[in-house]
């Protein structure tokens, strides 16, 4: 049997390293390549099954030095010009991308729809590599006319890589949400909703544009989806809201003030718990109103939860038999599992890594 090789682009970063460790420990027959721009850089953990390779997403052909035996690519670093994406498509290699905010996400879909695909492309860029939308889907398939409300509590003390703030460095960019009455344009850090998270912390959460708004509507039983966020430091939350509402954030947008914006948003710490709270409202098969609440907490923080979200997607592709491969096409994080068959297995996957899940 030919051994499978998974290439993790951005494999030296916080998220990439944890994806590599998870897959390495779970699959003794799997080889792993860590891709990055620095040739000869040492792997973050020692193993005879881990190698390094030069992959630069800014190069014309990022996979030039990746070799010919890559079975799956997981991208954990920005691919703003879609160069890695298209390089993987040309080589017919399955790809999981966890890095795209909404505009770059839509940009990829537009390009892929005009391209012949010969392998699956999983755009798993929803919150925490699609973890939030995956659990929303797992708990909503028996309902109709569902409204999904996702709330995230982001710790200012959490670990993070520099690409992690790309989502939040879009505070002056409006985005569309879909509601039962139709679509409408909203701005980030508006429409606050008071939320109490699993740790008892109560705060106001504000709108943020993520691909969850788009992907959750695809199956048809979900009528509306919203995502809101807050920091676990109320002073930080209100300061950002004030900068956006006053128009100051818009005035400091653009490349000239990039370093200033990053200094306001990117101050990673040593780690802290990441919380997600999902509210579902819908109707059962008898037409009765149903409310469901799913709380997700990862004591190891948002980078760990993101890595788990990517790994659970990777395992679906790795489990696919050689004689019945997943059909070529565009997939989203909530598409891959058969939620009726895999729900308990998915919950177990997260829980065995210390994630607390309650209903």
TrEMBL record:
<protein>
    <submittedName>
        <fullName>Saccharopine dehydrogenase</fullName>
    </submittedName>
</protein>
<dbReference type="InterPro" id="IPR036291">
    <property type="entry name" value="NAD(P)-bd_dom_sf"/>
</dbReference>
């Amino acid at each position: 049997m030919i051994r499978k090789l998974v290439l993790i682009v951005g494999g030296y970063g916080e998220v990439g390293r944890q994806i590599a460790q998870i897959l390495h420990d779970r699959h003794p027959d799997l080889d792993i390549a860590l891709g990055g721009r620095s040739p000869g850089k040492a792997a973050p953990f020692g193993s005879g099954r881990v190698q390094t390779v030069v992959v630069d997403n800014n190069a014309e052909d990022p996979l030039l030095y990746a070799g010919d035996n890559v079975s799956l690519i997981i991208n954990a670093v920005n691919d703003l010009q879609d160069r890695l994406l298209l390089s993987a498509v040309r080589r017919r290699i399955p790809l999981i991308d966890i890095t795209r905010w909404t505009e770059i996400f839509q940009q990829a879909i537009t390009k892929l729809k005009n391209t012949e695909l010969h392998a699956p492309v999983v755009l798993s860029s929803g919150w925490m590599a699609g973890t939030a939308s995956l659990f929303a889907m797992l708990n909503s398939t028996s309902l109709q006319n569902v409204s999904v409300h996702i709330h995230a509590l982001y710790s200012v003390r959490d670990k993070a890589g520099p690409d992690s703030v790309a989502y939040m460095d879009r505070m002056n960019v409006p985005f569309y949400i879909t509601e039962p009455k139709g679509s409408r344009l909203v701005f980030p850090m508006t429409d606050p909703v008071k939320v109490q998270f699993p740790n008892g912390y109560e705060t106001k959460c504000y709108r943020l544009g993520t691909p969850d708004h788009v992907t959750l509507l695809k199956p048809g039983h979900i009528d509306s989806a919203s995502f809101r966020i807050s920091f676990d430091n109320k002073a930080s939350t209100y300061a950002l809201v004030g900068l956006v509402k006053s128009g100051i954030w818009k005035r400091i947008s653009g490349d000239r003030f990039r370093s200033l914006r990053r200094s306001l948003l990117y101050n990673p710490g040593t780690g802290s718990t990441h919380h997600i709270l999902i509210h579902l409202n819908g109707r059962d098969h008898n037409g009765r109103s149903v409310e469901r609440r799913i709380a997700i907490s990862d004591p190891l923080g948002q980078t760990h939860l993101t890595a788990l979200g990517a790994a659970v997607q990777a395992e679906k592709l790795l489990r696919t038999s050689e004689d019945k491969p997943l059909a070529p096409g565009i997939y989203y994080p909530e598409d891959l599992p058969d939620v009726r068959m895999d729900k308990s297995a998915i919950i177990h996957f997260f829980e065995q890594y210390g994630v607390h899940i309650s209903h």
